[in-house]
Specification:
Blueprint (H helix, E strand, L loop, with lengths): L2 H9 L12 H8 L6 E5 L4 H4 L11 H9 L4 E6 L9 E4 L5 H11 L2 E6 L5 H11 L3 E11 L3 H5 L8 E8 L5 E8 L1
Parallel strand pairs: 1-2, 1-4, 2-3, 4-5
Antiparallel strand pairs: 5-7, 6-7
Length: 185
């Protein structure tokens, strides 16, 4: 079991098989040698939403705490459509389908080494967020919780922005959703 999978279990994060998805091993393979200093996750996760996928001990912002421990000395940011306050993690209220709100947030944050979209999971929102935020991405951008029939649509986004390569589409046989990963080239 990878370090990221262990941290996902520790923080009760739905990204690992114990709680819902099968992403953590794949994410670890992509990110294990990275020394990021700044990252953003779209979608913070509220207790009322995430308890159904994890358990009654779910803590808001579980994946942000997981990333904070995984990437030592990394400034972790989160954004959500709801106001959620977390310890030692700066959060923003942002509608990911609103380009201006995304731009305003990035004017406060600046470029990030890693951006992961675990927000609304609505295809149109994922596209808007990616097209708006790619220019602020130094290395990796992942769109999470993607249905297989949307993989090709999202993978083609590499043609819409400069210096971008879709390096992975992934779905586990026991999952109904997967992720699409882009890398700055």
């Amino acid at each position: 079991m990878s370090k990221l999978c262990k941290l996902a279990e520790k923080y009760i994060c739905d990204k690992c098989p114990k709680y819902h998805h099968y992403y953590t091993e794949e994410y670890h393979n992509i990110l294990k040698d990275k020394k990021y200093t700044k990252m953003l996750e779209i979608g913070i996760g509220t207790k009322e939403l995430m308890t159904a996928y994890t358990n009654d001990n779910y803590q808001e912002g579980a994946s942000l705490y997981m990333w904070k421990e995984y990437f030592e000395n990394c400034q972790v940011y989160g954004c959500d459509i709801k106001s959620i306050k977390l310890n030692n993690i700066e959060t923003f209220v942002v509608d990911q389908s609103n380009e201006q709100q995304l731009e305003n947030m990035m004017n406060n944050i600046g470029n990030c080494d890693f951006i992961i979209d675990d927000g609304s999971h609505i295809l149109h929102h994922q596209i808007i967020s990616f097209l708006t935020l790619w220019k602020y991405t130094n290395d990796i951008y992942i769109i999470e919780d993607v249905y297989k029939q949307h993989f090709n649509i999202l993978a083609q986004l590499e043609n819409e922005v400069p210096n971008c390569k879709c390096i992975k589409t992934y779905i586990h046989e026991k999952d109904i959703q997967g992720f699409v990963c882009f890398k700055r080239i």
